[in-house]
Amino acid sequence: MIMRSGLLRAAAAPALALALLTPTAPSAVAADPQPVYGELAANGTFAAGTTGWWSSGAAMTATGGELVASVDGATADPWDAIVGQDALRFRPGVRYTLSFDARASVAATLRATAQLGGEPYTATLDRTVALTTTSQRFSWTFTSGIDTTTGALNFQLGGQPVPTDFVLDNVSLTTSTAREGFYTDPDNTAATWVGDNPLDPRAARIKASVADHNTVKWFGDWDADGDPTTAIRTEVSNYVGAAADQGRLPVLVAYNIPGRDCGGASSGGAGSPDLYKAWIDQFTQGIAGRPAIVVLEPDAVAQASDDACMKGTAEQRFDMLWYATQHLQQQGPSVRTYLDAGNATWTLGADLSGTQGIGLERMAYLLNRSGISMARGISVNVSNFDDTPVSDDYAARLTARLRSDFGVTSRWVVDTSRNGNGGWVVPGSPDSGHVGFCNPPQRRLGVTSRAGSAGGAEYQLWIKNPGDSDGDSDQCPAGSPPAGRFSPDLAEALIDGA
Q: Rounded to whole angstroms, how far apart are CA atoms 185 and 214?
């Protein structure tokens, strides 16, 4: 048990500082480099006993993976008994989330603060909650108004009328995770259109329903290949850095594989395997180990099974994707890479023509050849329309196959940007399956980017920017804009499901 001692110097302190004042003593936190992103609270599950925690005015023990702090009831004010952590890094303007489980032996109050660890003891979070004998989960997301490397997380337990045992567990303080929200690309295509057309009667609803939720940025051959002096590393760095400065999580799509889209509406990509590897080098260096989700090369793995598309270059594609997953893995645990695995229709073959899909066994093989063992998992339904249950079912079956065939454990993310009505089927033929990949009618926006649920996707993400056209080929409705061009008509149709 670590105790703090000392007297409050209250006479000269303002009222707020008095309430937040913490007695000074050596910190119990080890002198490791301060975490800036991800989980900031040490030993929040108390699996290591009370390591990293201090107490003042309370007897502190750890039992069964919970922290028990006993207060004798003789104190007058909340700050007369505290358990907490020190040496936390708080950055101004950055979003954080504090959450914890708590209960007490009798009805009691607990005050939670995130604050300066020294004078003037300014708090950037200050919440008082009522506890019962049943454990409750508390969680708040807040924006820091302080800039310090000596921040403190305090649980003030004093001021109880009778002796009280407080029980804490699963204490978490995070930043730059999905809990604080995904970073919205300020220059996304919908936002650009709204900015250029402020008087258009559709602008307000497109901004509110689409532009404000476009949380993914695509990078490709519109950024110059390979040359270290070109913009790709700087562009990626600026984007990831802007997200980190807000404490939000950025999502990036790397879309530059040679022979991209098999010469279809989104054709292009790096000019050679060597240029692609040089481009990936710059892309990964731009991330620089900071928190990011990367969706790697939509369609590239599935298309590797198409001999007419590959023309004998499948081995080169596997090599390039392996190189990319390897270099992204080297960026560290804050970077989560999801190698694209197409969609349920592509693999399982549930389209109108009855054509048999690639098959789970073949898709698992292709992913394994492409370096899936070095990625966090797979992405499914990118730029597609299958509803989330269909996509989750496909991804669950595919990841089970990866595990059984290759011993690879994978998670998955689902593109929900346009799947609110599921895949388009032929009117009057509900068993026709998912058909129509290019601007199909009567599709609707899906749920905005968020963390997934247990047993399903790890994240549900808007990966395709709604309103961006799928292309203007013969397979698309007449009048469709070129691939990637924003259309307010397409955006409004997705809002209305019309």
A: 6
